[in-house]
Amino acid sequence: MTDSxxxxxxxxxxxYQDLSxxxxxxxxxxxxxxxxxxxxxxVTSFIFFLIGGIFAxxxxxxxxxxxxDLVDRTFYNGMFTMHGTIMxxxxxxxxxxxxxNYLVPIMIGAKDMAFPRLNAAAFWMVPIVGTLMMASFFVPxxxxxSGWWSYPPVSLQNPTGQLITGQFLWILAVAISGxxxxxxxxxxxxxxxxxxxxxxxxxxxxxxxxxxxxAQIIQLFGLxxxxxxxxxxxxxxxxxxxxxxxxxxxxxxxxxxxxxxYSHPAVYVIILxxxxxxxxxxxxxxxxxxxxxxxxxxxxxxxxxxxxLVWVHHMYASGTPGWMRMLFMLSTMCxxxxxxxxxxxxxxxxxxxxxxxxxxxxxxxxxxxxxxxAGVTGIMLSAVPVDIHVNNTYFVVGHxxxxxxxxxxxxxxxAIYHWFPKMTGRMYYESWxxxxxxxxxxxxxxxxxxxxxxxxxxxxxxxxxxxxxxTFWNVLASLGAFLLGMSTLPFIxxxxxxxxxxxxxxxxxxxxxxxxxxxxxxxxxxxxEDTPIIVSEPYSYGKSDPLVSNLEGVxxxxx
Amino acid sequence: MFRKTIIMDSSISSQPLHxxxxxxxxxxxxxxxxxxxxxxIFLSFFAxxxxxxxxxxxxxPAGVTGLEIKDPLINTVVLISSSFVIYIAEQxxxxxxxxxxxxxxxxxxxxxxxxxxxxxxxxxxLEFGFTSGVFGGMFYLLTGFHGLHVxxxxxxxxxxxxxxxxxxxxxxxxFGVIATSLFWHFVDVIWIVLFVLLYLWQ
Lengths: 559, 202
Fold this sequence. Notes:
The structure holds two protein chains of two kinds.
Chain A: H1 3-20, H2 34-62, H3 73-107, H4 116-135, H5 166-194, H6 207-238, H7 252-286, H8 293-307, H9 322-334, H10 336-350, H11 359-382, H12 384-390, H13 394-424, H14 430-448, H15 451-457, H16 471-501, H17 551-555
Helix pairs in contact in A: 2-3, 2-4, 2-16, 3-4, 3-5, 3-7, 3-13, 4-5, 5-6, 6-7, 6-8, 7-8, 7-10, 7-11, 7-13, 8-10, 11-13, 11-14, 13-14, 13-15, 14-16
Chain B: H1 2-12, H2 24-55, H3 70-94, H4 98-125, H5 133-163, H6 175-200
């Protein structure tokens, strides 16, 4: 044995001991096990989700009354900026990457990700990003205040003249988060392409893997554009170049192009894994195979392809020429085609099934309803005349919160409830889950539905004070927001107490079909005793096909 | 019928895919994916450059007539030749002729360094700076960002050269050298586009 082999063996035995001891400390170590990293991602991002939620409470508290009387102006600007940034860069991306980390290797029958150490490095950048974001509140000039877009020339304003401003830290944090995302994306794409078990062809992969794969391809080809824009913005801010400074011949619109060239596909990066989660959850709780598996799989790639061709629809009101607005209006409306395919496939899956309405299914169905609503407002917004009317109003805010809270966060909750027994080996308390769902569902609609009439009447987003005629809807929205904030409490209580002392979960509590349900809960350190050999399609509910041909070997002695 | 059965069987018991972490095939694939991703940054800068060049009214800063082509052209020739040189070095390594590999890798490093030094001399002689309007900003951003990649490539080649002096390092495969070489070709291709955009299109 060479030295390196001895070292590897030692590492493996150590990690076995770690896992066998069910040691909570391993979540605070630089572990390279994809399951540990997945949980680390999930928990870290959830902490940031709570912080972002507190910011949202501040915003809605300010908006209960027409006057700006709760917090001072600078702080309020920082609130909506950091709320957006944190919710996107530190909640949705990392949490979905964490879920992907946990599930993708198991679902394709691999022992781990393609590059475990790269994986750990990508995760440990997330706390650094979070620290930078939080630190920006403590610099003399306060945090970034130009909205999460940080459009120049607003974001180039530096009245204090210091180098370390909130905006500076913001750009740095976003750039580091980009590096982390690229590392994760390279890793996941390689894992899906190269680490599949024998017999696991592309059209035998679960839809969740398809969705994550498409989403990470978008990351790879979109994110560098934002990095380029961020680098130029950083030089403008610090060195005094004039890329985006119109007084020096720069072009601020170019930053918008860079920004939206990534940040529009980014919403598909977020939503595609949620589509994958829906596709995993509906067949299980309806006891039916997924309707139209192949076209649902391909539609993920179609969405990824179309997503790169629609970014200008965020810039209809930025002086974009008419012919360009026309083209992008058409391409934006094309997004609804693959998305519609998916929605109809889910409805057809549920249709006539034996439904079990437990928490995960409720969340998935609630999220689907809200996604359809968001899709309808999205098509309204894609039309140029409508968009010019409601540009930068609460209508837009309502639309994307229906997507980002109603669909993404609710879908994330569905995923957490669905895979919680697998991840922790414990069952959660069903009644608390139901309470959580109804609070969240009512809260979401009460919070974000009033934003649509507000926007149509012309209330601008990102304002601290407004005309008294908007008071009624704003009070409703604020009450909904506080309800939404409260709805998180039963979830936290439920998850923490279940994890510590919940009833022990069987390896397949939902009688689901899939590789992750074959192995023990929580999964052993290298997932499978033997590499599984896949012999049948996924989602074969109602058929008696075996999923793998060497079941004994896969299960090993974990039973 | 018989053939169809065989094909169906082979889809199940086909060659098992890589099941080792950090296997060479995985790394090769991942590195290509990474380079594709990185090319997008350069493409964004190029797109920005083209838009600025076609829309800015006072494109060149006052007193600047354009860029000298002669020295950058020599630089370009040297950099592109070094791509072939590192390819030859790789061929030597394939045949396990370490001394040839070291010699040609050293030659590559020398050519890369020549390029960087030439770039520095050129920067030194220019009469506009990073903050001289959009043109200056874009010029220094593109050449600087590319120069950073050249520097990274040289450092990687230096590491590979150092590694070749430790015995048994290239027995199990030499993915590091392959990656370095890929990276170097990538840097070269980017430079060709950059040269056309910055120097030839004036």
